[in-house]
Amino acid sequence: MEFTPHATCEDLEHKLRLANDLQEALPLQQLSLHYQPQFETGSGNVRGFEALLRWNHPHFGPISPTEFIPLAEETGLIYSIGDWVIQTACQKNKQIQEKYMPNSVMSVNLSGLQLQDSLFFDRVCGILQQTALSPQSLELELTERDRISLKDRRIDSLKRFAHHGIKIVLDDFGTEYSSLEYITTLPLSTIKIDRSFVTHINNHYEGTVLVEWIISLARKLGFTVVAEGIETYEQLHTLQKWKCDFVQGYLLSKPLHEQELPLFFRKVEWKQENKF
Ligand code: C2E
Ligand code: MG
Ligand code: MG
Ligand code: MG
């Protein structure tokens, strides 16, 4: 377990308690997935969803994945939790395809550690078979924070997924120094521009120029481009103008509990029928 130098005793105690409680979170059904819709920027059509993990702690209430995913990585729980996420997200996507949207794509966030597990690829293929989903229905999101270097064996694992037809997405693009090396080295199909850049659109000259440049560069290199964290119509219209392929953000929809999906699709259908 990693301890930061400025952490107080209470911080450490809290961290240890959470790490301990996390072991029980899966069997006690405290983990769940929320699904944030992703939209085609030009047409406004739904393209699919990103699965986002939630932990409802019995004492502390909802805990952010940015807090407990690092604990899952440090304790090795990320392997079982990661498998559960993919299994659950694929089952949900199968239901969505059968009920509402035959081509729905589900994006799942990965931890770099999962790629070190040599049986991971086979397990993911097993889940796709078992849920009768095509590999094209699943995307795996990886962040630059995982620091996959040029000679890293995880690149082979990523290539296996890519050859099998499972798209690899680079999440939080632009937040780490390695961005450009990454996009020329990894077998990526999609680049997801981080919310911190999207926030700059139209209220910060250099930031605006940078996002426009990233989108045009990525498209020239043949990547699909997604922007995350869209919160204003101004941002949306600018991204439409710049031909960003897909968008995600609170403006269009927050991550939804599975019980909110039927209402979401009813609204989508109603908008289509009424043409707006
Ligand atoms: P991420 O993959 O970059 O996910 C986007 C985050 O931004 C999500 O936070 C989402 O709820 C939030 N978000 C979406 N639209 C907006 C917006 O318009 N405004 C603002 N302010 N926020 C928005 P969340 O769900 O708290 O997840 C945080 C991070 O935790 C994720 O970032 C991802 O890196 C990680 N994570 C979540 N689920 C999993 C998982 O199943 N496995 C792994 N390894 N990591 C996960
Ligand atoms: Mg993500
Ligand atoms: Mg992101
Ligand atoms: Mg993020």
From TrEMBL:
Domain EAL: 15-269
Superkingdom of origin: Bacteria
Pfam families according to UniProt: EAL
InterPro entries, per database record: Cyclic-di-GMP_PDE-like (IPR050706), EAL_dom (IPR001633), EAL_sf (IPR035919)
MF term (GO), any: cyclic-guanylate-specific phosphodiesterase activity
Identification of the protein by name: EAL domain-containing protein
Source organism: Brevibacillus agri
